[in-house]
Amino acid sequence: MGQDLVATYITDDYKAAVKEVLDKALAGEQTANYEFPLFTEAGDRVMILLNATTRRDVKGSVNGVIGIGQDITELDQNRTNIEQSYAERSRELNEVFELSPDGFVFIDDKGDIVMSNPAFSSMTGLDADDLAGTSSRDFMESILELLDDESRVKFTASRKIHNANLTLSFKAPMVRVLGYTSRSLSDESQEVSGRIMYFKDITNEAEVDRMKSEFLSTAAHELRTPLASILGFSELLKMRSYGESQKEDMIETIYTQSLALKKLLDELLDLARIEARAAKVLNLVEAKLDVTLEAAIKTVEGVDVAWTVDFDKLGGDFIYSYDTELMHRAFINVLSNAFKYSPNDTTIQCTLMANDRFCKISITDRGIGMSKDELGRIGERFWRADDSGQIAGTGLGVALVYQIVQMHNGSVEIDSEPNKGTTVHLVFPRNSVRSIS
User: Fold this and answer.
1) What are phi and psi of 385, to 5 degrees?
2) I want to staple 370 with a disulfide (CB 3.0 to 4.6 A). Which of 18, 49, 244, 416 is the partner?
3) Comparing C-alpha atoms, which of 32, 89, 97 is closest to residue 66?
4) Is the whole model's pTM more than 0.90, yes or no?
């Protein structure tokens, strides 16, 4: 008793503030719920919640201060722990927010942009600093300028929907497809407190879906053509009587179309199997690339006595680690095409060259060749340089070659001129088709 409260018991960093609270109370101004630390006789730190009330005598004159202090040490520690946990959680969420490959935009209950992340800026070219504080109406207008006509209509209609899910096609800053989702945010009383917009780049998925639909449509058409001939001639043979010569012609057509149908189905299955294996480890074995190529040449020459290949080897190291089955298939497809699109008496030139940087297989024909526009379509499934139907084929062989070469980290390069012939180069960097030497 009798000690100066502030000078004796209050820590230096709180002395001025506590003295101000007491002075205000002495001046008739009450202070409620002021927090400050006290230290016990044993030196323990205790947090106090202080309510300071003016004390008056019977005449109403101020004669002191009544201070009611509540020990909130445990409460303060719990609060500190919660704040630290909240700060750590906020830091983690901010890191996720910043690093997420998907775009986010937050809008408050007033309809203003609160924040957006770097991924959204990358997708749309809209700067996060410029967006902060922008009204949702202006933000929507900025997005509409980036969309194509169909997406503008969908995005405009979504303004009236609290929870929207759309696919939007952007024409700027680059052509891409984004999945868009918006959700209303509610507080504890279920009042709308804002909105979150989520953008995900699904350009690749959309392209795969488009290619799948196109492929299925084309495949169905290609399958229908030989099937129609088989069915048509079969019905004719069943319903009418024909002479032996006519029967033989019809049976030959049915047989030819059946082979074409079988070849088409085989190549479709091969393509599916190869694509399924693309994500897996190749069946790599140590083998001589020239031996695999020579085996393919012999296989193709055996198809027709008029087919001959002039084969040259440049370099002496042809021992590599590669998938021999797939590579053999790729060589056969390229060689077969060279013969099919060339005159019967033409000799195909084949060269295998290997050096320290790469190995290259070049196969040259003197056939119909291709224009620049046609070269741009090489590798498309079912596309063929000759659309007259006189040259047999499914239009899948080159697609298979591309798939196999790419699985070995190689590339396909093609030089061609109309009516002068075509050269197909299969190029493999030295470190991709692994050298064993």
Assistant:
1) -65, -35
2) 416
3) 32
4) no
